[in-house]
């Protein structure tokens, strides 16, 4: 239809005509992008989505633990399903930088997982936190306060798509260390990401006697996945690209996934391989389940914090780099005191603050890296303590090794100089 067919000779106002044309154009655009036009056929394989929306059980929350001045559930947040609203949520008001506010408060407030043993776990009986991500929270506290214990943990989950990210945007937490993938969509939604702390990939856990050994064997199968996560999107993207039809069984919280899989409500469960290794230990008979070696995605996991605070970005980033650089230089929690006292290696001396004033440039003490390594450890110490061969998970480090230690490691720190 030509635009001039709407022209009038009776003196219609041109602005009215322009609005009419804009409406027609919008309708045409929506017809082409928002749904199927007449005669158009869908190109993706059929996917049956079975939705369960029962409340998530038992994970401690910020309100339950009384661990935050503002409970996450009370935050004024945008519609959980409105991505554009997420991107325009109001950041904390302007004022002192976050490092100064953290110092004045006297503790770091760190968001993490409470239900993923090995990465983030809250032991209600002992009232204690442990895990790989938890230790990075402690490393930040050690760098700022010289006290790895000066940290308050907030349990955050993925329910409703937004909770963990709203907590960052609103200032309810200072930093998020919680098995979170760095993506473009998240990076442009008033969030910033620090260095990758764990290189992961998404795969599937299946019953060992199922005969399933690769993703193609899951055609027509029921697959449990957490709603609103990168795992859900990766599953749909990869299986659509491969032309594999399946039944997706969505759950609002990761805590619902694994009991449902254990009860036989789905043939497989998908998530990052590290999470599957952790959660396998919670099943009734862990030895009867296997994790596929195939990966359908690459998942760079790392810290998340509010954007537009460059000093805070530098602090969090160089805390992570300090743990990695320490392992590169073979400095660990056991030998760090001796290295500080007697090392002749200028790289080690700069890292530990015996030479230079690099900490001062970050707003930290010169020995901030020494405090990290002595109280929490190098990257290798943190990994082995929580995920290494003496733990129930015994996760192979794979790419999560320092680049100069061989065997395919990709972790690297910019030099301290």
CATH architecture of the domain at 49-53 and 202-297: 3-Layer(aba) Sandwich
Largest sheet properties: 6 strands, mixed
What's the β-strand tally? 16
Number of helices: 16
| CATH level 4 superfamily of the domain at 49-53 and 202-297 | Periplasmic binding protein-like II
Give the helix proportion (percent range).
Answer: 25-40%
Shape: globular
Rounded mean pLDDT is: 81
Regions with little confidence, pLDDT below 50 for 5+ residues: 1-91
Q: Please state roughly what percent of the residues sit in beta strands, choosing from under 5%, 5-15%, 15-25%, 25-35%, 35-45% or over 45%.
A: 15-25%
Please characterize this protein's 3D structure:
This protein is of the alpha/beta class. Among the domains are: 31 residues; 101 residues, Periplasmic binding protein-like II (D-Maltodextrin-Binding Protein, domain 2); 97 residues, no CATH class. The chain has 16 helices and 16 strands. Strands 1-12-11-13-10-14 form a six-stranded mixed beta sheet, with helices on both faces. A three-stranded parallel beta sheet has the order 6-2-7, sandwiched between helices. β11, α8 and β12 form a beta-alpha-beta unit. α11 packs across α15. The longest helix is centred in the first third of the chain and has 20 residues. It is globular. The N terminus is likely disordered.
